[in-house]
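User: quick one - fold this with adenosine-5'-triphosphate bound?
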Amino acid sequence: MTPLLQVKDVSKNFGGFMALDGVSVDIAQGERFGLIGPNGSGKTTLINCVSGVLANDSGSIRFDGREISGLPAYQRTRRGIARSFQIPRPFASMSVLENLLVPLEYAGTGKLDEAHEILKQMGLADKAATQSNRLSQVELRKLELARAMAARPRLLISDEAMAGLSSNEISEVLEILFKLNAAGITIVMIEHIMQAVMKFSQRVICLDAGRIICEGTPAAIVAHPEVQRAYLGA
Ligand SMILES: Nc1ncnc2c1ncn2[C@@H]1O[C@H](COP(=O)(O)OP(=O)(O)OP(=O)(O)O)[C@@H](O)[C@H]1O
Ligand SMILES: [Mg+2]
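Assistant: Sure. Structure tokens for the protein plus adenosine-5'-triphosphate:
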């Protein structure tokens, strides 16, 4: 089967600084995939190139077999790529429900029932009427994922949805992502919280200075000497 996402030899530089240097990775339909690496290693840049926030300088990005690297972000969203942002920025003066209706309209679906269904999936049903600037940290992360889900993605990329959360809250977010995956959504998890990303992922890659330094099962990755050196400070 053709991989859902095929990244081939993708590079991105910022004024001569190589944030991504020839990154290649395939992600299978239905996979739970972990992306780790130290601060500044290029994780967000990679998903910015995949989601269309940034244009890659070279290389190819295929989704569902078709080249997407020239497409604007909204067209990639329509094809089924959604991502949450590392720093959630909901419309502060709007309610949780209204925040969800904005991307739903954008996706051309605009259905109130669907918004309520997504809020239920995220465990935010009882917060629908709450103004988003009154949400707790974990509720904000859930809203950020809910907004991504409003595009009805086939691929959901979660950029550090768990940073700063308590271990109970991390479990809640993990459970949500497991459920979405069980419903057929391919998930890429960017995460610094090792226990979470290793529990979640079937396969992990580690980036360091814009290059993939290793790829494998969670068990193989944590044991990898280069990962320990680059990432775990061993
Ligand atoms: N728009 C930009 N302009 C210039 N430099 C950038 C830009 N975006 C990222 N960078 C630089 O590219 C490198 C990779 O950044 P990136 O945000 O992809 O790292 P990251 O792996 O997501 O890190 P973190 O774990 O801290 O989120 C960093 O050195 C960063 O400063
Ligand atoms: Mg990042």
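One thing worth noting: The first strand starts at residue 5 and ends at 14.
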